[in-house]
Amino acid sequence: MQDRRQQPREKVLYGGVVQAEESSTTKDCVVRNLSEKGASIELGNIDSFPKGQISLTIARKGRSFLAKVIWWRDNFVGLAFNEETPEPVSDLEQRLRRSEAKKRALQRRINQLLGDG
């Protein structure tokens, strides 16, 4: 089979979430390969998977993509990213704030257990 991709895809194993453009329903997925222009994902159950525009979010990469379904076979789906996909938005600041709040809560609990507070 001839590979018609414009860019080679990197084999990866990331958790992701897909959402149909017209609904708020989300499905967990596994991103199997990824490039600047598209991805291949695996879903557990795709009986009602949308065949049009979707949103793919890969938390580990801190990225979200608008994509079009190009092919669909069994539980595997090939996606092409839209050209107008927004630049990545980092969630690092939000994660840092949550981590600092957890640290403060744990420190208070340690002080309570040690009788210092």
The profile of the biggest β sheet is: 6 strands, antiparallel, barrel
- What's the CATH H-level homologous superfamily of the largest domain? predicted glycosyltransferase like domains
What is the radius of gyration?
19 Å
Average pLDDT rating: 82
Overall geometric form? elongated
Report the structural category.
alpha+beta
Indicate the CATH class of the largest domain.
Mainly Beta
Question: What's the architecture of the largest domain, going by CATH?
Answer: Beta Barrel
The end-to-end span amounts to 68 Å
Describe the structure.
- It is a single chain.
- With 117 residues, the chain is an alpha+beta fold.
- It has two domains: 1-86, Thrombin, subunit H, CATH 2.40.10.220; 89-117.
- It has one helix at 92-114, and strands spanning 10-20, 26-34, 38-43, 53-58, 63-73, 76-81.
- The protein has a six-stranded antiparallel barrel.
